[in-house]
Amino acid sequence: MSNNGSTSWDGYSLKKKREVPEGLWRRCPGCEDMIFTRTVEENLGVCPECRHHFRISARQRIKQLCDQDSFEEQMADYFPVDALNFTDSQAYKQRLRNLQKKTGLTDAVVMGKGFVKGRPLILAALDPNFMMGSMGSVVGEKITVAAELATELQLPLVIVSCSGGARMQEGALSLAQMAKTSAAVGRLHEAGGLFISVLADPTSGGVTASFAMLGDVILAEPGALICFAGPRTIWHTIKVELPAGFQKAEFLLEHGFIDMIVHRKELRSQIARIIDYCGK
Amino acid sequence: MTRTDDFSVAVANEPNGNGYLDFEKPLANLESQIAELRALQAAKGIDYSPEIRQLRSNLVKLTSKIYNNLSAWETVQVARHPRRPILTDYLSLMMKDFRELHGDRCFGDDRAIVTGFGRIGREKVLLVGHRKGRTTKEKVECNFGCAHPEGYRKALLKMKLAEKFRLPIVCLIDTPGAYPGLDAEERGQAQAIAVNLMEMSRLRVPVVCVVIGEGGSGGALGIGVGDRFAIMQFAYYSVISPEGCAAILWKDGAEAPKAAEALKLVSKDLLKRGVVDHIIPEPLGGAHRNPHEAVHNLETHLIKTIRELRRYKIENLIENRYRKLRSIGEFTIAEKTTSRTVRTAAAVETPVKPTARRKTTKA
Prior knowledge:
- The structure holds two protein chains of two kinds.
- By secondary structure, chain A is α/β, with parallel strands linked by helices.
- Chain A is 33% helix and 18% strand.
- Chain A has helices spanning 37-42, 58-65, 92-103, 137-153, 171-190, 205-208, 231-238, 249-254, 267-278; strands spanning 25-27, 34-36, 72-74, 78-80, 109-116, 119-126, 157-163, 195-203, 217-220, 260-261.
- In chain A, helix 4 runs parallel beside helix 5 (171-190).
- Residues 1-8 of chain A have low confidence and may be disordered.
- Chain B is α/β, with parallel strands linked by helices.
- Chain B is built from 16 helices and ten strands.
- In chain B, strands 1, 2, 3, 4, 5, 6, 7 and 8 form an eight-stranded mixed β-sheet that branches. In chain B, strands 9-10 form a two-stranded antiparallel sheet.
- In chain B, helix 10 (217-221) links the parallel strand 5 (207-216) and strand 6 (228-232).
- Chain B is globular.
- The two termini of chain B are 44 Å apart.
- At the A-B interface, strand 4, helix 4, helix 5, helix 6 and helix 7 of A face helix 8, helix 9, helix 10, helix 11 and helix 12 of B.
């Protein structure tokens, strides 16, 4: 866990965070500066001072990546169901309804066809605002279909991961999505398709341990937390606090698990270039 | 995600020295009564056999009553019972001529995962399984069944070996979860599991998976993708440990019983959701009361399944495996005004039938 205490995927931190009212200004967790929200938005959700990459929604991500108005969403009418009748502090059904209203999404992923610098591709992006981008049946199904579409249409597949892992509220069904998505990506690889996996902050648990780590090329955003067991899980299990920078994108690069770290501004051109080298 | 409690909790939950769990207290009383009567009979030479018979039939009734109505949390405790048969028991009681193979040719040999050749009945197989250990020393050596990345890489390497020489693969799953530690993270736990999931989904030999005890999240799945996925009656299989789930959603690990109930992690519920496709019955009162019967049931299942899978053409086998994995999941598709629950279109497709061959089953 790094010193600023803002790294874990579910907002958990061993240190107290200072509250800042939402609105015009926001505090950058990187440099602790107050910055104008609009400046951040205009800068693709990156702090202009310290290059801290804020989490951005799936729709923003797609808007940033795709050529203007080129994205055609698919499977927008897939809704999650409460198969287990799950209730913790709040019923899962209620949680879903609230989030659907708040985010305008049906579940934590947006998937479709689009163009990046004129190159056609299948694109899926996970949304950190919808139950921390966790993977339940709908996310699993859409990612699987994305891989199948890419195989069928012989298009490159790009998935931007940003997720807390498998969704607990769907129990073992979520766990099965890991195998399902991995199998679909396996078929894409077998057919000679290109899969570029982009890891944004945070990518953890069941998503890292399935499709996110199976890209032909794996890109990551600077400072992104990428892990299997998050800092909190490690803390609960073996009572060890992580050294600064542990599980960050830079750490993974150093250990050989990702291909490159890409600034959000350059993501579009990097993806386009990789498609030129590998795509058909 | 993985189990997030520390191991001291698991130790605290262990039943007392007699091997009885909390909800088994009535059984302990009856059994001690029977033992007393027996001792008396031997000492005084009086015939108490009718009473003993009565007590024993009561015991059977009570055991089946308790075990037919186990709560999810009680099932988890049975799955973690210190006397429950573990991989090493199955190896010695079920496998003939087991030859262990070590090492991932890359970093080391993870003791938490066992791989090796052996025979089950007449079937030559490659066995992969989690080792938990019985004594404290063994447990520490095997890291309580929590594997590191090198364990998963070793498993994959040996599975590729089996693929090369067309040996069916049997995976016996029994782990609280993949190890959530610094070294495991550093060596790419997530990447190791991810690669296993992808590669196992397209192995060109039959793969049979069975959860024999704990099926803890990614750690279980890392050697748990196959043509058939079965679970022992009192084993569990879950996306996260009940303790971990309680710590996150209820902010309190002590709420684990509630979380266990909510996660629907017992065999019956898993079968209903289509996550597992078979439940292997356990002897009355759980596998730990009669390990031989448990081993026999597992052996019967494995032999039957391997024989069945051998009849498929490899292409069909892989196609069916994909369709099976593909079909799991529940969601609705909004269609104009009506919505319907589907288990995806793939579930409706009928699996490819095995090709008729003359020499199918040898007796």
